[in-house]
Amino acid sequence: MQPANTLLAPSILSADFTKLAESIALAEKAGADWMHCDVMDGHFVPNITFGPFIIKAIAQCTNLVIDTHLMISDPDTYIADFIQAGSNQITVHQETCAHLHRSVQLIKSLGAKAGVSINPGTPVSTLEAILPDLDLVLLMSVNPGFGGQKFISSSFDKLRKLDEMRNAMNPEMILAVDGGVTVDNAQDLVSAGADALIAGTAFFKADNPAEAAVKIKSASR
User: Fold this and answer.
1) What pLDDT does residue 46 have?
2) Catalytic center residues
3) Per the annotation, does 96 bind a ligand?
4) What is d(CA 152, CA 92) in angstroms, rounded to the nearest whole number?
5) HEC string for the chain
6) In what order do the strands lie in the sheet with 113-118?
7) What residue ranges define each of the domains in the chain, with the CATH number in brackets?
8) Does residue 95 register a pLDDT over 90?
9) Is 69 annotated as a binding residue?
10) Is 193 annotated as a binding residue?
11) What are the pLDDT digits (tens) for 11-48?
């Protein structure tokens, strides 16, 4: 079921890793719903972040949903490790999965919710066959790899199309947006169909993260 209120998922990538527990506590206190964890391999995306050991550390610090986004070339090899470490939901990329249904089924068979993400240059039509099986679609509104990028405006059209597809094929699926999310565009994103907003820089780098969280979560249909 689509949430009544906008879900806030601070991206841990933008947090201060010398104060990881404090950063997570800050997100919890601000009313975050998920902790978003971006896993990058330096191959599918031009950056390297962290592996399951960081997920395990995060899981020891919070009861929030751990939302793990695998921006890696061979996700099936590592899905079990990330779920065992504490991930509650795993999102893989349509662009990296040769057998997307198999990847989604693997995630679900291990007890986690399954999501699929698409890059800015990937048409939403590529998700038509898999959409009924998903718990989550994550629309990338920047090219993945680095935080702090500018939102790609054409993402609004893709978001509206995904919302139409979701309503027709899988009304209970969550639609999330990641990349260039700010307090200024949060309302427009939710109006276009987003249920969950991934906020890295907009939350952790804000002068007042708690105030930023309130503004983002207050966005409504």
Assistant:
1) 86
2) 38, 178
3) no
4) 21
5) CCCCCCEEEEEHHHCCHHHHHHHHHHHHHCCCCEEEEEEEECCCCCCECCCHHHHHHHHCCCCCEEEEEEECCCHHHCHHHHHHHCCCEEEEEHHHCCCHHHHHHHHHHCCCEEEEEECCCCCHHHHCCCHHHCCEEEEECCCCCCCCCCCCCCHHHHHHHHHHHHHHHCCCCEEEEECCCCCCCHHHHHHHCCCEEEECHHHHCCCCHHHHHHHHHCCCC
6) 7-10, 196-199, 174-178, 136-140, 113-118, 89-93, 65-71, 34-40
7) 7-217 (3.20.20.70)
8) yes
9) yes
10) no
11) 999 999 999 999 999 999 999 999 999 999 999 998 89
User: What is the spatial distance between Cα 188 and Cα 206, in angstroms, rounded to a whole number?
Assistant: 20
Instruction: State the pLDDT at residue 151.
Output: 86
125 is in an annotated binding site: no
Q: How many CB atoms lie within 10 A of CB 6?
A: 20
Q: Which residue has the tokens 């986004």?
A: 69
- What are 99-151's pLDDT values in tens digits? 999 999 999 999 999 999 999 999 999 999 999 999 999 999 988 766 666 88
Contact 6, 218 (CB under 8 A): yes
Residues whose CB falls within 8 Å of the CB of residue 67, separated by 6 or more in sequence, listed in order: 9, 34, 35, 36, 37, 87, 88, 89, 91
C-alpha span between 62 and 161 (Å, rounded): 34
